Amino acid sequence: MNPILPVILSGGAGTRLWPLSRPEQPKQFHRLVDAHTLLQATALRVADAELFSPPLIIANERHAAAVEAQLAEADTTFASLILEPMGRNTAPAIALAALAARPDDLLLVLPSDHVIRDVPAFHAAVRTAAALANEGWLVTFGIRPDRPETGYGYIKRGAALRPDAFAAERFVEKPDLETAEAYLADGGYDWNGGIFMMRAGRYLEELAAQAPDVLEPARSAMAKAARAGNRIVPNAEAFAAARSQSIDYAVMEGAERVAVVPVAMGWSDVGSWDALLDLAERDENDVARHGDVLAIDSARCLVRSDGPAVVTVGVSDLIVVATEDAVLILPRGQSQRVREAVEALAARDSGQ
Q1: What letter does residue 251 receive in the DSSP assignment?
Q2: Which H or E element spans position 104?
Q3: Measured between alpha carbons, how far is 20 from 213 in angstroms, rounded to an integer?
Q4: One domain for residues 176 and 79
Q5: Which has the closest alpha carbon to 303: 326, 275, 277?
Q6: Does 19 have pLDDT greater than 90?
Q7: 278: containing domain
Q8: Residue 135 to residue 27: CA distance in whole angstroms
Q9: What is the DSSP string of 148-214?
Q10: Which end of the chain has the least Cβ crowding within 10 Å, N or C?
Q11: How far apart are CA 13 and CA 332, in angstroms?
């Protein structure tokens, strides 16, 4: 089997976990569910040298030192750190990795800010995906749904390619609740978790056919890249010309020979404070605490402080998050509205 080369995408801002996650210190650099940061946990998940080569890390240029420090702390190695001069979404980012790899390398594309509890199940799905990718398939990992989720896109399974893999019949947008309930009842739909595998050369072929305005700027940016040690900084002027688009829209939805490998692996994208509450350890009153927190007569809450002491008394179904310079309080179940707070603060601070 060709080497499996993990490509860890670490360029996201994670604004849905404000005030903890900020552009200068996004969520992948935080310890949210255990002793490791999300970035460290992702790197450790692909540290088995019998299955994986040292990964390529794609990150924002301003996070270079943080990435290197965190991976060193976790005693993990990486092949190259590709530092985007600006974010252009996942299709151009993965193009940089494919251009840095050998054409026959199997790229396993992983967001750096996800949680996967069942690593053996993940590795089993990787092996299945690798066999398909070696045959020329573009593979996406389908997360088996356990609820009618409206916050994720879905993938409809088509014909079986083997007992544990299917042709991807179509990708569908985030549904309303009624549609999501129908997908769950149907049993043939999986969440699109944003994890992919394909040969590097195969991905570049698809970009050439479907998105040359992504490929050519990325190719030029890598040809003109500055290199120092294992850091690669693509040329900013060239990379800025790349169309900003996700791999889903640029490649996966229009390609032939797209496969889906469904997997139940304890996955979460930790996309909100409510999602983190679902993952967190809770006390007998269903309260998840972190930091200097005292919860008195409180129930079904997430209370987190990375700064001052926080005390709750006689409250329920709240999310309370405190940092050194900000406090967020909102009802449980409404954490998707954090983006409204971030936008309102940005407008206030700009004087609009």
Answers
A1: I
A2: none
A3: 35
A4: yes
A5: 277
A6: yes
A7: 273-350
A8: 36
A9: --SSS-EEEEEEEEETTEEEEEEEEPPPPHHHHHHHHHHS-EEEEEEEEEEEHHHHHHHHHHH-HHH
A10: C
A11: 23
Q: What is the DSSP letter of 22?
A: B
Write down which residue in 246, 268, 290 finishes a domain. Answer: 268
Could you tell me if 57 and 10 are in contact, meaning their C-beta atoms sit under 8 angstroms apart? yes
Of 207, 234, 268, the residue that ends a domain is: 268
Q: Are 31 and 81 contained in the same domain? A: yes
My answer on whether 217 and 279 are in the same domain is no
Q: Which amino acid is at 294?
A: L
Q: How many angstroms separate the CA atoms of 23 and 223, rounded?
A: 28
Residue from 217, 203, 240 nearest 101 by CA? 203
Q: What's the rounded Cα separation, in Å, for the pair 92 and 115?
A: 24
What domain count does the chain have? Answer: 2
Q: Given strand 288-290, what is the order of strands in its sheet?
A: 288-290, 302-305, 318-322, 327-331
The model's pTM is 0.93
Read off φ and ψ for residue 69, nearest 5 degrees.
Answer: -65, -40
Q: Which of 133-147, 153-167, 337-351 has the lowest mean pLDDT?
A: 337-351
Q: Work out the number of other CB atoms within 10 angstroms of the CB of residue 119.
A: 15
Residue 92 has pLDDT above 70, yes or no: yes
Instruction: Tell me the pLDDT tens digit for each residue of 35-83.
Output: 899 999 999 999 999 999 999 999 999 999 999 999 999 999 999 999 9
Pairing relation of β-strands 165-172 and 258-263?
antiparallel
Query: CB-side exposure of 211: number of CA atoms within 13 Å?
Result: 29
Domain of 88, CATH number, reads 3.90.550.10
Token pair in block for residue 262: 């469904």
| Burial bucket for residue 150 (CB in 10 Å: 0-12, 13-18, 19+) | middle
What kind and span of H or E run contains 93? helix 90-100
Give the pairing type, strands 189-199 and 138-143: antiparallel
Task: Say whether pLDDT at 352 is over 70.
Answer: no
Confidence class for position 298, pLDDT limits 50, 70, 90: very high
